[in-house]
Amino acid sequence: MAPSRRLLDEIRQSQPFPSPAQEAAVGLLRTADAVRRGVGEVVGERGITQQQYNVLRILRGSHPEPLPTLDLAARMIEAAPGITRLLDRLEAKGLVGRRRCKDDRRQVLCSITPPGLDLLAALDQPLDAALSRGMHPLGEAKLAALTELLDQVRAGFAAARKPAAPGPEPTPLPLSSPRPTTHQEREP
C-alpha cells in the first residue's frame, strides 16, 4: 500500500515513512491531536480542561458511588501525574467532592457534585455534535471497524509492555519490506 500523501503533505514531509508502522503511528498521533483540539474547544468554553472533563466523565459513570483517587487516576484517558491538583481545582469549582474512606483513612473517595452533573449535561450535546462532525465521513460501519482496530493497537502495546513468558521468542512481524541485498538486486 502506498504511503498516505495527505499525511506527508500535512506534516510537510517529503520522504516516505521508513515503515507502515511508523506511518500509522504518526497518523494516529496526528488524528488524536485533532480530536483533542476539537474536544478542548468545546469543554474550554465551559471553563474546564480536557483532563478535568475526563475526571468528571469518569465520576459521572460511577455515580452515585464514589471512586478512590487511585482508581480514578487509572481510568484516565491520559495519565495525570498531578491527579490531586486536578481534583483540587475541580473541588474549588464545586464540581467534585472528596472525603476520607471510613474503612481506610489513607484512601480518599471522590464523587461528582450536582453542579458537576449539570455541567456535563450541558456539554453532552455540543460535544457529541463536534465529534459527530469530525467523524461523520466514516459512517457507523467504519467507526465500528476503527474502534476495533484501535482496541487491537492498544492491546498490542499493552502486550509489548508485559514481561515475556518463558518459552521460545515469538517471531517479530516485519515493520517494513526488507530491502533486497546487492546480490538479490542483480537477479532477474
> What portion of residues is helical?
55-70%
* CA-based gyration radius: 22 Å
Structural class: mainly alpha
Q: Determine the mean pLDDT.
A: 85
Q: What would you give as the CATH superfamily of one domain?
A: Winged helix-like DNA-binding domain superfamily/Winged helix DNA-binding domain
**What is the CATH architecture assignment of one domain?**
Orthogonal Bundle
What are the segments in which pLDDT stays under 50 over at least 5 consecutive residues?
177-188
DSSP, total strands: 3
Largest beta sheet: what is the strand line-up? 1-3-2
Largest sheet: 3 strands, antiparallel
Q: Could you give a quick summary of the protein structure above?
A:
By secondary structure, the chain is mainly α. It contains eight helices and three strands. Helix 2 packs across helix 6.
